[in-house]
Every structure is written in C-alpha cells, then in structure tokens.
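Extended Data, record Sleeping Beauty transposase HTH domain-containing protein
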Amino acid sequence: MAKTKELSKDTGNKIVDLHQAGKTESAIGKQLGVKKSTVGAIIRKWKTYKTTDNLPRSGAPRKISPRGVKMITRTCCAE
C-alpha cells in the first residue's frame, strides 16, 4: 500500500459540514478536490466516532524508550 497524506482536521470538518447540508459524496469530492472514496471514509468515521481526528492505529508498542534509543545510538556511533 502506498503512503499517502492524511487529511487535515479542517478538511474533515468541511466534508462533514457539507454532508450535513445535503451534498452528495461526489459533489463534496469535486468541490474540495478529494476522492469520493475518501469523502465516504471520512463520513463513515464521523458517523461511528463523532470525530474527524486521525485515530490511533494498531500495532505493537515500542519495546525501548526514547532514552534507551539515545543510549544505543551513542554507543554505536562512538566507535
């Protein structure tokens, strides 16, 4: 999967406002320059979580603290 930019909170809020005003997904996409599928995903997220913020993703937590990373970096780069 290709890396893509995340939409700003402002753009997400505009999408939700236009949706509540009765605009279609394709009309919103054309107006804001966003794909229709992205508009649909933002609206679905808003209906489920009542937010347009970027939600935390799944994944294993870091095993080492930022302090530990610095210590390892100093040890490796000292040679």
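Summary. The CA atoms of residues 30 and 36 lie 8 Å apart.
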